[in-house]
Design brief:
By secondary structure, the protein is α/β, with parallel strands linked by helices. It is built from 14 helices and twelve strands. The strands form two sheets. Strands 1-7-6-5-4-2-3 form a seven-stranded mixed β-sheet, with helices on both faces. The radius of gyration is 21 Å and the shape is globular.
Length: 387
């Protein structure tokens, strides 16, 4: 880790652009170097040539540099990178499964599936709560000494916004820790640890990298002395769910443009949400930046500089109409994932298990950084004739 404390760090946009000020001392290069070695030599007396560098599963220098940047962005003491966002989430949930786990409803599909199939079906007590109903969270925590609350805000694809500070207070009152999946918000808009969360989770595949060419996950925390964090680190090491060096280097490169990408995409998403909200072919638009979003007040309070690049909307006419709209798009790509520089749309009912009861008319839109008018015009032509 860097010897600088979070309080002494610059703003997140500067942290990301300057990669924490890392310079290649060997060459003077302003781009952090890639060190691909998987193992590190020892001296004749068998001491380490470089302290802390033994084997790349835990000791890859480039991976550590990427972790330091993420920790600084999240105002965390430390961070760990994983082979994917789901690897990070699975490691956290498995490590916390020494007691009941409370999970938010309607969050990322992969998290729900893991909680059900890998935990609940194997005897782990998994409970559920509504993200914008903290009474339901308190009820889920009421007995049995739960160890962890897992929330996602804004949620994917429902765009529910959880009041992190309030959720953290409730979790802590019941002796549980709060983990927040902040993938959609990014550290540009929200830093959950400063609001009381104990862990922050990212699918770094998404906005942190931003270029749809890296699969990665991250966990960041200030809870470094806890048994839970030690269990997470052991699980990552023992299972080998680590990120490769080249992927870490690509992630560092992607994060250097995090601020400009996130601000641009959020601005585009706000404009598109406003356009869709007034369109006769649309039943519902879910975007926390809209004043009529049920969680807008919470989003305005805990998100800074924008409301993210993710939104969803329901097309009148159900699945048939939604698929027709997606099929007519010319500039927005039909593909899975969010947070990239290119705009992507997905008909979630076509890819999710029926257990999620996804509405047939729902389309999830990850807004990129193209010219916003090109995106609006593409949606407008695709929606023509739908009523």
């Amino acid at each position: 880790m860097s010897d600088r404390t979070p309080d002494s760090l610059p703003r997140p946009e500067t942290i990301a652009v300057q990669a924490l000020g890392r310079i290649d001392r060997a060459s003077g290069g302003v781009v952090p170097p890639l060190q691909p070695s998987t193992t590190f030599a020892r001296e004749r007396d068998y001491s380490l040539m470089t302290e802390g560098h033994i084997y790349a599963r835990d000791d890859a220098p480039t991976v550590r540099e990427a972790e330091d940047i993420i920790a600084a962005l999240e105002k965390a003491t430390t961070a760990r990178l994983f082979a994917s966002g789901m690897a990070a989430i699975a490691t956290l949930l498995r490590a916390a499964a020494t007691g009941p786990i409370v999970v938010q409803k309607g969050i990322y599909y992969g998290t729900q599936v893991f909680a059900l199939r890998a935990l609940a079906e194997h005897g782990i007590d998994v409970r559920w709560f509504e993200g914008n109903d903290l009474d339901s969270l308190a009820a889920a925590l009421a007995d049995g000494k739960p160890t962890l609350v897992f929330a996602e805000t804004p949620s994917n694809p429902w765009l529910t916004v959880v009041d992190i500070a309030a959720a953290a207070k409730i979790a802590h009152q019941h002796g549980a820790r709060l983990a927040v999946d902040s993938t959609a918000a990014t550290p540009i808009h929200t830093t959950p640890l400063t609001l009381g969360a104990d862990y922050v989770v990212h699918s770094a595949t998404k906005s942190l990298n931003g270029h749809s060419d890296v699969l990665a996950g991250a966990l960041a925390t200030n809870d470094t002395d806890s048994d839970l964090w030690q269990a997470i680190c052991r699980e990552r090491h023992d299972a080998g769910a680590v990120l490769g060096t080249f992927e870490a280097w690509l992630l560092i490169r992607g994060m250097r443009t995090l601020g400009v990408r996130v601000h641009s995409a959020s601005s585009n998403a706000m404009a598109i949400a406003g356009f869709l909200a007034g369109h006769r072919a649309i039943e519902t638009v879910r975007y926390p930046g809209l004043a009529d979003h049920p969680d807008h007040a919470v989003a305005r309070r805990q998100m800074t500089g924008g409301y993210g690049s993710l939104l969803s909307f329901d097309v009148r006419g159900g699945s048939e109409a939604a698929l027709a709209v997606a099929g007519k798009l010319k500039r927005i790509v039909r593909a899975t994932s969010i947070g990239g520089i290119e705009s992507l749309i997905e008909h979630r009912r076509s890819v999710e298990d029926p257990m999620t009861n996804m509405p047939g008319g729902l389309l999830r839109l990850s807004v990129g950084i193209e010219h916003v008018q090109d995106l609006v015009e593409d949606l407008d032509q695709a929606l023509a004739g739908i009523a």
